[in-house]
Amino acid sequence: MKSILLSKAVLLTTEMEPRIFGLDFQLLNDAIIVLISVFVLFLLASYLLFNPVRKMLDNRRAKIKGELETAAADMAGAAALKKEYDKKLKNVNAEVDEILSAARKQALVNENRIIAEAREEAARIISRAQTEAELEKEKAADAIKTEIIDVAALMAGKAISDQLNIQIQEKLINDTLKEMGKSTWQS
Predict the structure, then answer these.
(1) Could you give the angle at the alpha carbon of 153 between the alpha carbons of 148 and 158, nearest 5°?
(2) Which of 166, 171, 173 is nearest to 152 (CA)?
(3) Sign of torsion, CA 17 22 26 28?
């Protein structure tokens, strides 16, 4: 069977006209039509597919470029904020020391003021206490004087009852006062 097919193929090739590279007019015609069809399809695909894809890619490039620029601006802003933050962080310790120093100074001023007020109040209390003590001392001295006078009056009554004269009474009162002493009835 192979031999029959091979012999038919040889007959067919010998019956045909001689061709350049085996191309005939119909094949060239078909090839040109296929090329024109491919070109038209390429133009149609370019218009319907490639141009929208190119446009989409251009939009995507523009969006990416904008996002990159925004990201770069954000990074620059973040770097500036970080610099400012670092600067503030370095100054925080100085500010804390300054605030604590001011608070300590204010506390010392308040302490001195409170101590001065307490001393003034203590001085007033002591002064009042001394004044009251003096008044009490004077009251006590007055009470003792009245008792001495009462005792002297009793003694005078005894002296009168014993028929003593006034000179003897005065002598008795003065002697009694001298014996008691001024410090005894004042303290």
Answers:
(1) 125
(2) 173
(3) negative
CB 173 within 8 A of CB 158: no
CA atoms within 13 A on the CB side of 95: 6
For 185, counting Cβ atoms within 10 Å of its Cβ (0-12 exposed, 13-18 middle, 19+ buried), the class is: middle
- Using DSSP, state whether 164 is helix, strand or coil: coil
Section 156-171 average pLDDT: 67
Q: Please answer whether residues 155 and 137 qualify as being in contact, where contact means their C-beta atoms are separated by less than 8 angstroms.
A: no
Q: What is the rounded distance in angstroms from the CA atom of residue 64 to the CA atom of residue 164?
A: 138
- Does residue 159 contact residue 168 with C-beta atoms inside 8 Å? yes
Rounded to a whole number of angstroms, the distance between the first and last alpha carbons of the chain is: 166
CA 48 – CA 6 distance, rounded (Å): 49
Euclidean distance between CA atoms 39 and 32, whole angstroms? 10
Distance CA 129, CA 118 (A): 16
Helix (H, G, I), strand (E, B) or coil at 23: strand
Alpha-carbon distances of 169 from 43, 127, 147, 185, rounded to whole Å: 160, 42, 16, 20
C-alpha–C-alpha distance, residues 131 and 7, integer Å: 159
Write the pLDDT tens digit of every residue in 97-128: 889 999 999 999 999 999 999 999 999 999 99
